[in-house]
Amino acid sequence: MKSKLLTASLLASALFAGLGMAPAMAQGNNHTPGIDQSQQAISARIQQGLASGHITPSEAQALYQRDREIEAREMRYKANGSTNPQERQQLRADLGALSADVERMMTNNVYSAPPVAGGNTNTNTNTNGIDRLEYKISQRIDEGVRTGRITQREARRLYSRERVIERHEQAFKADGVVTQQERRQLRNELTALRDEVERMMRNDRRNGRG
User: Fold this and answer.
1) N or C, which terminus of the chain has less Cβ within 10 Å?
2) What does the alpha-carbon distance between residue 190 and residue 137 come to, in Å, rounded to a whole number?
3) Is-above-0.70 flag for pTM?
4) What is the chain's pLDDT, residue by residue, as a tens digit (210 residues)?
5) Burial class (CB in 10 A: 0-12, 13-18, 19+), 171
6) Cα 42-44-46 angle, rounded to 5 deg
């Protein structure tokens, strides 16, 4: 019995010692769990919007870019080993604005129209294959920017072309039916955009080549 009490006492002492040290460390370190959790929640929400069709690939790309900018700012704040209250407040404000924009898109951007009368899904507005291609192109552009093969200016131009294609898609969906000819046009436009992205990816200019 005494042995058990002694063991418990030692564990408790160690725990309290650790807790006693924690506040001092927390005040001077760069741990931001609440901010990190918010970023994870926003990322998951964007993924949900992509899956449901409420957020388009190019919109998701822009949202993820903002998220990365906030994360980069957080890393700069942490560079000296700590983040002060003002910096934490700025990060929370930035994430709050980003989260609000995501929720606005989730509420307003409803792209998935209901099936036409009679439930014939062969002639409705389902364009999952086209949406997947758009998403892959967005990912490829992002990879190009990240690796230096695509400049920020080029990326903006490519994303602008993608948004034009998305507007075409929404116009085709407006009457509740996307015809085979309209689908073909969308695929042709996306294929041309994808080919342009791949050309840039092959033209490696990171070391002054190309």
Assistant:
1) N
2) 8
3) no
4) 444 444 444 444 443 343 333 333 344 455 677 888 888 889 888 888 887 778 877 788 888 888 888 888 888 888 887 788 888 888 888 899 889 888 888 876 544 443 344 444 444 667 778 888 888 888 888 888 888 899 888 988 998 888 888 888 888 888 888 888 998 999 999 999 999 999 999 886 554 444
5) exposed
6) 70
